[in-house]
Write a structure and sequence with these properties.
14% strand, four-stranded parallel beta sheet, Rossmann fold, 290 residues, alpha/beta
Length: 290
Amino acid sequence: MSIFNLHSNVLDDYRDFVRSFFTVADDRAREFIDHELLDEARLWPEALLQVSPSYARVASVDELADRNVILRETAQIFRNERGEPFFLYQHQVEAMERAARRESYVVTSGTGSGKSLTYFLPIVDAFLRQPTARDRVAALVVYPMNALVNSQFEALKKLRAGYEQRTGRRFPVSFAKYTGDVRGDARREIQTHPPQILLTNYVMAELLLVRPDDQSLLPQAGPDGLRFFVFDELHTYRGRQGAVPQRQMSYASARAPRWLPAGSPHLCNDGKRSRPLPHKFSGAQSRRIR
């Protein structure tokens, strides 16, 4: 069955389902309803066709290592299951360059453009260049929902497994997720031996500021302290929820020298007009990467 036939069959079934709920005796009313259901297709919108943009590919991680943009060891980490190097888009390479200059930036590329690499790559490379204490959080990555935390946590685990299998060495950077699902001994282990990269959601990030047991997870800034603060999918924070990251940034701005927000080019959309992300939201002058 073709996709077009499937689409037509689904619409026919849905139309019959809706019509089964009412019987119209009046001929004119029935004619009007049939016209609206069949001819005007009021029950469903017109088909929407979207084309994803093709992002410019610039260089592989091996080529970046040849140019001393990243370390060879970093290039060994960011490879696929077959051991082939990741090939990066223009905005990913630009993010690496800005991070190397210790600049804050906002990534505004679309869905599926690999925005997570615009912060994981510079974080891992920075930790390899200037190692941090393994039992201290040096990068805090905040997501709007646990599903994204879990997804990125699995992606890091896949990178770790591939690296250790190829090299026979221990993965050089520690990471963990810290959500409401992490409880008991697992939570105490993270509090006692914090990872270098901590993935969490915005609610738990708020609790890091106030809960005594979590104070070890938000250290002071410095070479052996907090060095990166990331907000992923920043455009999802709207209304009262939008005040959360701003409050966290304001509190932690004296602690973290770098801010790496990634997500949509807009803070919110009220259905009539979109408002650009203000620089004051991050507490620092940020550069936009498209």
